[in-house]
Design a protein that fits this description.
It is a single chain. The chain is mainly α and 145 residues long. It has two domains: 62 residues; 70 residues, F1FO ATP Synthase (Up-down Bundle). The mean pLDDT is 81. Helices cover 81% and strands 0% of the residues.
Length: 145
């Protein structure tokens, strides 16, 4: 566990240092080859550390004999709850991806013609409706557990 925390700390510190380096030297300058491979290695180390902590945490939870909760939650019920949360998760992510370019384009359109405000607001609402659909699906799935 401590080895994984050390890996995460070291890789996070080096990623921060590289971030500062790239902030001071923009990407228009030529990036050395060794720097690209080092950043890839640090990202790989960070991901291995995160997955290791996740695995260690799952192992500790699965090895626990008692659950400190009032409700009796089995593994199947926990996975069902995660499955219910997935439509909201993915639809919110999709709505964010949809709203980003629509919002930028609508701001540009409003800057040129202020009378387009209502139309651009409708487009933003349609894109945001994706998240509401996912929430409705999750709410409809809750009584099925």
């Amino acid at each position: 566990m401590y080895i994984m925390l050390g890996l995460l700390s070291i890789s996070l510190i080096t990623l921060i240092i590289f971030g500062i380096y790239f902030e001071l030297k923009p990407s228009s300058a030529k990036v050395p080859h060794w720097l690209k491979s080092t950043i890839g290695f640090n990202l790989l180390t960070f991901m291995i550390g995160i997955l290791g902590l996740l695995f260690a945490g799952i192992q500790e939870v699965m090895a626990a004999t008692e659950i400190a909760s009032v409700h009796d939650v089995s593994i199947g019920k926990g996975l069902a709850l995660i499955g219910i949360a997935l439509p909201t998760c993915f639809s919110t992510l999709a709505a964010g991806i949809a709203v980003a370019p629509i919002g930028a384009a609508s701001l540009a359109a409003i800057a040129e013609k202020p009378e387009n405000f209502g139309r651009s607001l409708i487009y933003l609402g349609l894109a945001e409706g994706i998240a509401i659909y996912g929430l409705v699906v999750s709410i409809l799935l809750m009584p099925k557990i």
